[in-house]
Amino acid sequence: MNRCIMRTANSEQRTANSDLLPAFRDYLRLPQKLELYHEKNFLTSIALAFLFSFLMFSSAHGAAVGAPGVGIRAPSEGYAPQIDEQTLQGLNENEINKYFNEIFDSGKLDRSTVTSLFRRLPRYGMSLFRQPSSTSAPQQTLQVARDYRINVGDEMTLSIRGIPREVNYSFVVRRDGTARIPRSGTIRLVGYTFEEVERLLERQLSKYYVGYQMSLSMGRPVYFTGEAHTPGAYAISSFSTFIDVLQMSGGPNANGTLRRIELKRGRKTIANFDTYAVLMPGNKPQDIRLQPGDVIDIPQVGELIGIAGEIRNPGVYELNDETRLEDLIYIACGLNARTFAGRIQYFKATDNTYANAVEGTLADFQHTELHDGDILRLYPLSNYSASISITGPLVKPGTYAITPGHTRIDEIIQRGGGLLSTASNRAIVTRVTPSLKGPVNERFNVDLERAMEGDPEDNMTLEANDKITIMTRSW
User: Most buried among 44, 130, 215, 254, by the most CB within 10 A?
Assistant: First the structure.
């Protein structure tokens, strides 16, 4: 790991100390001014004088030591991509209903509601760049072990600020262990630690400069361009690869593509990288070791679609070539255990206008090709459970789960522990069937003796919400 070390020359400390003199001179003049005050205010005035001198001293001292915002800029300790946490929260069922009710309302078919939904859904692939890494970062935040010993072939960058003509000089340690450095000549570096080299260069530069700022870093520059989260020059180690540096740098911004990132070397594009290949289970994409001067260009994002509801990774997905619904489900890690395959809502965008929703089963849309702006919603399984209730002289009357059209009366009586001695041979099954004209009530008389013997006419199959009443024997 590389680390950019920023130092202040000893000469700057001397300059800062000289800046303290005006503060003390003002302090000495204060008693003369304080004579204008009444004697009873003398102690208050002295306190104000000490406070004034303390503030002046603190300000000058802050400039001398490089306090953040004054004098030297404090180096950052790592790179953390900024991601809107709201997009990572996901949507609950009520929020999904709200958005989709607005989207599918014929009076509200506008892009604003759709855009709001897209913004609330997490963009798939951005999770790769959530966690910052310290093995590669912009040049001003690179880190290297302080006790690392310089070796042949190491590449270093020396930056000098605070002088009329600022210096950025990169050099490579030659085979004989030396390197030629401005204002220092040829110096042997092999065998010295990074910290020792830094102190050596400070001593050399202090002979020529006053009030300067020096930073020394190790690495090789590559460049991020286009829709990068933090475009610019990056210094990397000799072992850095394309995927490593892309992840560590923060990747694309909100307008950048995740599926067509280009690696350029010289005037040629030598690789096109698809971030989804890293995220797909079982995939091990071919990585490329970077070279000095490489350019990582991130074009604008491509076509986007949204999928919400009962899927393992709901979110906004970027299309790449021809993508069907079955491909999208695979990329999203599949359906979850609560997905209802019998209903899917498909909101299709056509010619930059939104068409009405289309509904069908998962099988209906499985091979449908998706396009920019399309939105899909998968529904959960219903909480409805098929059951019947049975009352009367039974060992365990109550509610029992059934398989509609398969479970029969004798099975329910057996599961209920059997009939009591007070039970008659007669039962009534009450059934309510919905229809366009309203609910239809039906009553069936059952001979329990024949039902228990398996007679299909009396041992009838049951439907959900049937009510079985076992009559009591009349003595």
Answer: 215
